[in-house]
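User: Quick one: structure for sequence A, then sequence B.

Assistant: Sequence A:
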Amino acid sequence: MNDQGMTMKRIKLGEICEVVSGSTPKTSVAEYWDGDINWITPAELTDETYIIEESQRKITQSAVQKTGLRSFPKGTVILSSRAPIGKVAIAGKEMYCNQGFKNLICSDRIDNKYLYWYLKGHTEYLNSLGRGATFKELSKSIVENIEILLPDLDEQIHCSNILKKCWDLISVQKKQIELYDKLIKSRFVEMFGVPTKNEKGFELLTVGDVVDFQGGAQPDKKFFEYEKTADNIRLIQIRDYKTDAYITYIPKSMAKRFCEVDDIMIGRYGPPIFQILKGIEGSYNVALMKAIPKKGNKEFIRHFLQQDCLLEYLEGLSQRTAGQAGIDMPMLKAYPLPYPPIDMQEMFAAFAKEVDILKSTAHQSLKKLQTLQKSLMQQYFT
């Protein structure tokens, strides 16, 4: 019995689920592809995926008949078993998948939504079970032998319903934040037009005329530290703008590039390239650069650099180069920048600041809901 008073017992997944794998029809056989039958890959699952009903790629009836593919039914819990391990979803209809999954067809002893949340709450544990020299993978036998805590069916359904309601609230907050970002973008275009067109006839400069870019730096990894001290400083990496799970420090004596919370930071490499970031103070690494305004309002410049037309331009350039996708700096600096009067820039900045206050409130609510969800998972599943 856990601290919620639920009667719990440990049981192996292989005793309550049938574990099935997928496979890939030969990509060289044209008749197997571009049909109307769903066939999914791990890359299609995100942290937001709950019910999945459509796949990006489709296979044909010929692929099913000639290769012996096995489908899994609606309601199956889909678990990615490699690249990456631990992504999870529920099949909204019958479908097929590639070999990157170990899928769980639930018996009547376990609620599929309960299993979804249970697996979602144990991503780190699932990754620890991965085996393999080239890349880590969960085998069918490993998945079958995973033990989970299983309450009575009514209690499972109760737990999954509560977690789904919490997830719905989290989704609402995330959508609200997205709407705030869209509002600022719309206001920018309303005031200044599309940068590539310069419909309002502003003075035409280039990005390099208005902005300096300062690349990051870092010492060898052997100097990395993972506890805060009086003698070190946070080393900021691109991933740190999404999670605090990998906080790293370096000696202050080795820090060469510094940023403040409100500086315009840019992710140099991708995918996706050219992420515009802010919110952390410290020393930034080689995957980041800082945009330093030479003239004009910082918020105007920040949001100009976030315009879709500029991102599409840079992505198009990066796709023509070999190796890791990055920013073509000479072409970025040469990009045209219609430069509006400073009073218009400041008017926009005031608007953006007001929206940012609302966004900050939404972010705080989101963080509280995510903490609540984590707490509920700990209560239900440990």
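Sequence B:
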Amino acid sequence: MKRSKRYSANAEKIKQTQSCSLDEGVKTLKSLSTPKFDESVDIAVRLGVDPKKSDQMVRGTVSLPHGTGKKVRVLVLCKAPKDREAKEAGADFVGLEEYIQKIEEGWDDVDAIVATPDVMKDVGKLGKYLGRKGLMPNPKTGTVTMEVADAVRQLKAGRIDFRVDRYGNVHATIGKMSFQEDQLSENIKAFMDQIVRLKPASAKGQYVRNVTISTTMGPGIKIDRIALLDSLR
């Protein structure tokens, strides 16, 4: 795969650092030249789990202290009077039958979907459309709830969902390049703290194997996992 000159130049800078502390990694990330848009900052964590085993499926949510820097579009699937609560809380889209139909027709212009338990019988048939996109409401992530107002506010404020993929990796967006260094570091620590808390009891050996941060258009910076984990204690 052919890389841009900017990518190659930044990769050379990063190669010299190898594994570094979180503060050094964030500082390096911020020092790299950026394009004309505000790039997202992503994290990738390699875990020592076997996702094929149901008791080693790492999945959860975390409220980032400084949000993601992204406007989150939220759809709430519910009936009255919960629809009013959702609208007052700031949901971008609220309804039921009309949105179920739109989703079946291919519409997915949202970042998160919340549903009340009483409509899950109808929403359940959307699994084949929403499951592969990570949008299917789920009680484990707090997106199937009667407390729709709280769920909407949390999502708008920076709560993110994550789950391990079939290769044992967890990916998430944890901020923007326009964030201050300490804001990015605090978001990363909050994310990693939740990852550690969700360690499956059946997972043996080294749980967190490596941690990498990167920008949308740039190469990854490997973070010293031992130092990072120690900072969480």
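The two ends are 40 Å apart (CA to CA). The chain is about 35% helix and 20% strand.

User: Thanks, that's what I needed.
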